Amino acid sequence: MSLSAFQLNGKNALVTGSHRGLGASIALALAEAGANVACHGLGSQPGTICADIQALGGRSAYFSGDLAESQVCSALIEKTVSEFGSLDILVNNAGIIRRSPAVEHAFEDWNQVISIDLTAVFRLSQLAARQMFKQASPGKILNIASVLSFQGGILVPSYAAAKGGVVQLTRAFANEWAAKGINVNAIAPGYMVTDNTAALRDDQLRSRQILDRIPAGRWGEPPDLAGAAIFLCSAASDYVHGHVLVVDGGWLAR
């Protein structure tokens, strides 16, 4: 296989939750591989991500909105197509986490996490697939799952449920859309240095317990997902469907 299979020249991507953290690293990696990237976040300003992409010679745009609102999902797809002319890659990265004992876990927290981490993945993927069918061209959908897609975690029942659902959605979509030229896959990150893990990293005991179990001996950094994202969004993975690629420093192997 030629290295050109990993190139994304001329491809147009949308990465949710990409104003910082894992999403920003994925967006930048896709741009480095040649894609134009629409970025998304809650705030009205994109931070530096759009400028970073443009510095690489790619086109970028920023759209804000709360993915708990269904109309935001449809607007993101429509605005990306309007800006770039097509949608070839969707990365469902946006997500939140709420920590509390299951017996105290607020129903509002449950609803909010499921809404953003799972329902929005369903809706955006559905809308993206419709657009890709209309274009009659191959497409890539990449979902960001978690090692908690396979484990129950501690104090995060809504997050574990949502991320377990993301894996099953990935497989369900792949079963229907593989023959139509759309690859649907997922990355399951391990314990990464992001806003979502700040509470864990600030807890010296819990942080040490986590580090002691990671064979790589360190927390993951957002750029650690770059290679996996490029692979699963490029022609190099054209025969990969419904797969969950774990990037966890060996966490699940122990």
How would you describe this protein?
The protein is an alpha/beta fold and 254 residues long. The protein has a single domain (3-246), classed as Rossmann fold, CATH 3.40.50. It is 42% helix and 15% strand. The chain has eight helices and seven strands. It has helices at 21-32, 49-55, 70-84, 107-135, 157-177, 198-202, 204-213, 226-233; strands spanning 12-15, 36-41, 60-64, 89-92, 139-144, 182-189, 244-247. It has a seven-stranded parallel β-sheet with strand order 3-2-1-4-5-6-7, with helices on both faces. α4 (107-135) links the parallel β4 (89-92) and β5. α1 (21-32) packs across α8. The chain is globular, with a radius of gyration of 17 Å. The model has no long low-confidence stretch (mean pLDDT 96).
Residue-averaged pLDDT: 96
Q: What composes the largest sheet? A: 7 strands, parallel
Helix content percent band: 40-55%
Question: Hey, roughly how much beta strand do the residues contain?
Answer: 5-15%
Tell me the span between the first and last alpha carbons: 33 Å
Can you name the CATH architecture?
Answer: 3-Layer(aba) Sandwich
SSE layout and pairing:
Blueprint: E1 12-15, H1 21-32, E2 36-41, H2 49-55, E3 60-64, H3 70-84, E4 89-92, H4 107-135, E5 139-144, H5 157-177, E6 182-189, H6 198-202, H7 204-213, H8 226-233, E7 244-247
Parallel strand pairs: 1-2, 1-4, 2-3, 4-5, 5-6, 6-7
